[in-house]
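Supplementary material to the annual report.
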Amino acid sequence: MPNERVTRSFAAKLGQVPGVLEFVISEASSRGLSPQRLMHLELSVEEAAVNTCRYAYPQGEGTLEVSVWEEAGHIMVELADAGVAFDPLAKADPDLDQPLENRPVGGLGIHLIRRVTDGVDYRRTGDRNVLTLAFNKERR
Amino acid sequence: MELNVKQEHGCAVVAVKDRLDTLTVWDFEQKVNGLIGEGSRRFVLDFSGLDYISSAGLRSILALAKKVKGQGGGVALFGLKGLVKEIFAVSGFDTVLPIFEDEAPAIQSFGNAQ
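Predicted assembly:
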C-alpha cells in the first residue's frame, strides 16, 4: 500500500546510486508525484547519495538506508547512514553573483537540493546522519 | 550518455545526450580534455539531447570553461530544455555561460571563425 513507509538498504558505493534513484523514483511515482517533480527528486537524491558514498565512511564500507513515505500531502525521502558526522546543509550557498573566474565550485549540490525540494532537514541522532527531503505533491 | 563531436568553423561542437551526472561525467571530461590536447579551445556544447544534469555535470562544464578561457577560448551552449534549462537557471550558470537557442548563433558568438 502506498501509505506505508518503505525502507531499503544499499551499500554506500557510487555504483549503487542508480539503484537508489530507481528505488525512490518508483516509490514516489506510485505515491503520485508528478513527472516534473520526479526529476527534482532524482536530482536531489543523487546529490545527497553521492555525498554519503564519498564522505560518510572514510574507513571503508558502510550502508545507506533510504526510506520513502507520504505525509500531509508531501512525499518524504529519508537518507540515513552511520558514518562520520557530516551536515551537508552547513556549507554556505555558493555566491551566484560572481563572474566565472571567481565562481567557487563548492556548495552547488546543496544549493540545487534546496531549490528543487520543498524542505530539507538534517539531524544527527545518536551515531547516524539523517537527511530528510520533502516534496509537495501540489507543486509542479 | 552519448557523445558526438564535430569540428565546425574552428569550434569543437560536442553533442551530449541523455545524462551528465556523477557516473557519466568522467567520460565527458576524458573527451573534452582529449580535444584540448588536440588544440581545441572553442567549445560549443549541444544539449538538445540532454535530459538530465546534476551538480557534477555543472562542475565539469565550469572546469572546462575556466580551463579554455585562460587560453583565449570559451564555452557556449545551445539547445537546453526541460530540467537542464531549469537547473542552469536555478544554479545561476545561465548568467556566466553564454546560452543560445541554436547551433549557428552559438558558433558565431566566438567572433571571426578560423
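The helical segments of chain A are 17-30, 35-55, 108-116.
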